[in-house]
Amino acid sequence: MVSELLFAAMGGAIRMASTELDNPMIVFGRNLVGAAILLGWLATRGGGRPLATRVPHLHLLRGLSGTGAMYCFFYAIAHMPLAEAMLLKLTSPLFIPLIALTWLHEPLGWRTPLALAIGFAGVLVILAPDARGIDPVALIALAGGVLAALAKVTVRRLSHTESPELIVFYFAVTGLAVSIIPLPWLWQTPSTQALGWVLATGLLATGGQLMLSRGMGRAPAGRLAPFSFFSVVFGAILGWLFWGETVTLATVAGAVLILLSVLVTGSQRLPANRAHRTDRAT
Q1: In degrees rounded to 5, what are phi and psi of residue 133?
Q2: In 10 A of CB 122, how many CB atoms?
Q3: Structure pTM?
Q4: Which residues lie closer than 8 Å to 151 by C-beta, 6 or more apart?
Q5: Are the C-beta atoms of residues 78 and 23 closer than 8 Å to each other?
Q6: How far apart are CA 219 and CA 228, in angstroms?
Q7: What are the structural domain ranges in the chain?
Q8: Tens digit of pLDDT per residue, the chain (282 long)?
Q9: If we measure between CA atoms, which residue out of 173, 164, 141, 151 comes closest to residue 258?
Q10: Which of 73, 191, 209, 245 could bond 239 through an S-S bridge, CB–CB 3.0 to 4.6 Å?
């Protein structure tokens, strides 16, 4: 629950930073802070294990998909109600079984099609298409869910041969390298206030990941899955307190359906040892 509170607070920091800075600047700042923390941690380890890898293409795929998801989510957080953005961020479990089936040839259990049907029904309720169509920002958030699912399936594939530390290291390096590319054209010199919000974004994101990893190391992923929805609750509270946002009935109904889908999917877990390695890396 603390990790989800930190992620929701990260969303608030992104919203504040976005009043002055464009999305690429915020993504770069978040990656820079995360990489600095990681490099500091590696420096304290002394010799440690080597950083050589036999699957650089998979690390690159994980880094590109994860960074793409970050761009999508950060943009959505800045341009739609915070609770809805946090909720659409949680749609990645709906796409993971489909990607795992296509790529890793992992069979779908009998509950998975039912869970996917319920989950996608919840997404449609939230998107609420009308005569004007679907909000493009919501589609960007949904694309972030697809990219996040691809990143997590790649982590599952990497965990067969790579350590969690190595996976996290190459993700940080790739994310920072990718987010540097657009800066020559889009650079903005941040004010002291904006710099503080970007720093808060990186610190809150890193703290949330640390707390999430600690929680995942002490309980099965399926049991912890429902707690991820606390980020929606905390996001709704922050959105109401600071931006006067209200939660619509469609958002509540969609959240219930997606939560039900996650509960059904989470009851079909990986074997304990494999799930533990995957969760730590993620």
Answers
A1: 90, -165
A2: 25
A3: 0.77
A4: 62, 65, 66, 69
A5: yes
A6: 14
A7: 2-281
A8: 888 889 889 888 998 998 898 889 999 998 888 888 877 776 776 555 567 778 889 999 988 998 999 899 889 988 888 888 888 877 877 787 788 778 877 777 777 788 778 877 887 777 766 556 677 888 898 899 899 888 888 887 887 787 766 777 788 889 899 999 999 898 888 899 999 999 999 889 888 877 776 665 566 555 665 677 777 778 888 888 888 887 778 778 887 887 787 777 665 554 444 444 444 444
A9: 141
A10: 245
Q: At 213, list the tokens.
A: 């990893």
* Token couple for 163: 């350590």
Name the one residue in this structure whose structure tokens are 């709906």.
Answer: 94
Single-letter amino acid, residue 79: H
Q: 3-state secondary structure string, the chain? A: CHHHHHHHHHHHHHHHHCCCCCHHHHHHHHHHHHHHHHHHHHHHCCCCCCCCCCCHHHHHHHHHHHHHHHHHHHHHHHHCCHHHHHHHHCCHHHHHHHHHHHHCCCCCCCCHHHHHHHHHHHHHHHHCCECCECCHHHHHHHHHHHHHHHHHHHHHHHCCCCCHHHHHHHHHHHHHHHHHCCHHHHCCCCCHHHHHHHHHHHHHHHHHHHHHHHHHCCCCHHHHHHHHHHHHHHHHHHHHHHHCCCCCHHHHHHHHHHHHHHHHHHCCCCCHHHHHHHHHHC
